[in-house]
Amino acid sequence: MSNRQLMEETRHALERNGFEVHVHATPEQAVPEILARLPAGATIGRCGSVTVERLGLWPALADRGHPILDPYVAGFTTEQKDAVRRQTQHADVLLTGTNAITTDGHLVNIDGVGNRVSAQIFGPRQVVIVAGWNKLVAGGVPAALARIKQVACPQNARRLNLDTPCARDLPCPPPDGCRSPGRMCNAVVILERRPRLTPIRIHLVAAALGF
Ligand code: SF4
């Protein structure tokens, strides 16, 4: 199956599960369409997402005058970061990525702190998720979790300077992973369907984005 067929199959499955889905042929096409669907003046919550960063959405949002709840401001103390993460739970919009999407329409994410996955479920008035086709996984939730542990975690651990076995290209220790303080797989969340009170819009982009 081609990547485009995979995207279409996934789009239909996600829609069956209650998610709003938009498919974009290129990142250049995706960015203005993502921005155009955000309410003017909406406060946007930021969580760790290489995909959103690589698309240049944060400067574009700042240019449009959106207040941004950003825990990554240089010089922030741990307390300041935590305060912004808590405010993000009440943002107008959470803008983030996802670790994996199964072709049968489930979102699969892991989180070390938990702010990203909790805000995807409930809190912000709206959730907007951007994903490249490299995040699509056939084979259901087990294959998605394998992708996260084998592909996403090693790259994210190195990016964030976390001392985990996967950062050193060692296998994730059985049976339930590592005991590192930097462990990213503390909260493992599967959205089988859209949580009832949270509108979730997913932008699928025909390009490899993020990890
Ligand atoms: S449990 Fe630890 S070693 Fe395994 S993937 Fe997660 S962070 Fe990496």
From TrEMBL:
LUD domain sequence ranges: 7-205
Entry-linked Pfam families: LUD_dom
SUPFAM superfamilies associated with the record: NagB/RpiA/CoA transferase-like
Superkingdom to which the source organism belongs: Bacteria
InterPro entries cross-referenced by the UniProt entry: LUD_dom, NagB/RpiA_transferase-like
Classification via PANTHER family: LUD DOMAIN-CONTAINING PROTEIN, LUD_DOM DOMAIN-CONTAINING PROTEIN
Protein name (database record): Transcriptional regulators of sugar metabolism
Upper taxonomic lineage: Bacteria, Candidatus Ozemobacteria, Candidatus Ozemobacterales, Candidatus Ozemobacteraceae, Candidatus Ozemobacter
